[in-house]
Amino acid sequence: MQIVLVGPMGVGKSTVGRLLAERLDCAYRDTDDDIVAEQGRTIADIFVDEGEPAFRAVEKQAVQRALAEHDGVLALGGGSILDEDTRELLAGYRVVYLSMDVEEAVQRTGLNAARPLLAVNPRRQWRELMEARRHLYTEVADAVVATDGRTPEEVTQAVLDALELKSA
Ligand SMILES: Nc1ncnc2c1ncn2[C@@H]1O[C@H](COP(=O)(O)OP(=O)(O)O)[C@@H](O)[C@H]1O
Ligand SMILES: O=C(O)C1=C[C@@H](OP(=O)(O)O)[C@@H](O)[C@H](O)C1
Ligand SMILES: [Mg+2]
Q1: Could you tell me where the DSSP H helices lie in the chain?
Q2: Number of domains in the chain
Q3: Of the residues 13, 47, 151, 166, which has the maximum number of CB atoms within 10 A of its CB?
Q4: 166 C-alpha vs ligand 3 centroid, how far in Å?
Q5: Ligand 3 centroid vs 76 CA: distance in angstroms?
Q6: Which domain holds residue 52?
């Protein structure tokens, strides 16, 4: 069983990914965690020290490796779908896009310095980021699950329903 979660930062990929893996009694993996473990520093530090393109190159490798190795639920970093090869690779997997609107996004991520892409003027940055990415999330997804006003448990159930899966 392989399920891949995509969507913007703060939408709940990591939170829901863990719950989903529990419900399906399978393993959970997160490419951001893989990158932090491999590089021995935080995502924010990699962005500051080396810049976004260097981070994206490391991320691309991490996603390829995780897709090849992992059996279970895999949460990707929010920007991983910017890479065309990654999008092509995802065509072979069951992919769920977790979505939310701008107000929900600001509540969940606006004050969180660990997400460097939203550190200044989160509302505007969010809109710009989604304009650039929304079609890419949709393109790679087999199902879209809206998370607005839903608890992580409710989102997890909605993902199971969207994929027509039952708990283990
Ligand atoms: N459905 C939800 N409702 C409210 N808060 C949520 C929900 N899902 C996640 N969160 C919170 O939003 C923040 C970002 O969640 P996270 O799982 O790290 O997102 P992602 O991995 O997509 O960036 C965390 O503080 C988390 O507790
Ligand atoms: O959307 C993005 O470009 C990013 C999302 C983050 O992961 P989450 O989506 O898990 O927050 C992390 O990879 C990095 O801060 C960049
Ligand atoms: Mg995450």
Answers
A1: 13-24, 31-39, 43-50, 52-69, 84-90, 102-109, 122-140, 152-162
A2: 1
A3: 13
A4: 24
A5: 7
A6: 2-162
Dihedral pair phi/psi, residue 28, rounded to 5°: -120, 140
Q: What is the mean pLDDT of each run of 10 residues along the chain (168 residues)?
A: 93 97 97 98 95 97 97 97 97 96 81 59 85 97 96 98 87
Q: What ipTM was assigned to the predicted interfaces of this complex?
A: 0.98
In a domain, 167, yes or no: no
pLDDT at 103: 84
CB distance 150 to ligand 1 below 6 Å:
yes
Classify residue 33 as exposed, middle or buried by CB count within 10 Å of its CB (0-12, 13-18, 19+). Answer: middle
| CA 30/CA 37 separation, integer angstroms | 11
Verify whether ligand 1 is closer than 6 Å to residue 10 (CB atom).
Answer: yes
**What CATH number should be reported for the domain holding residue 50?**
3.40.50.300
What residue ranges line ligand 2, CB within 6 angstroms? 8-10, 13-14, 32, 43, 77-79, 115-117
Site of tokens 């989903």: 20
User: Does the Cβ of 110 fall within 6 Å of ligand 1?
Assistant: no
Q: What is the pLDDT of residues 87-136, one digit of tens each?
A: 999 999 999 999 999 888 888 776 555 566 666 677 888 889 999 999 99
What pTM was computed for the model? 0.94
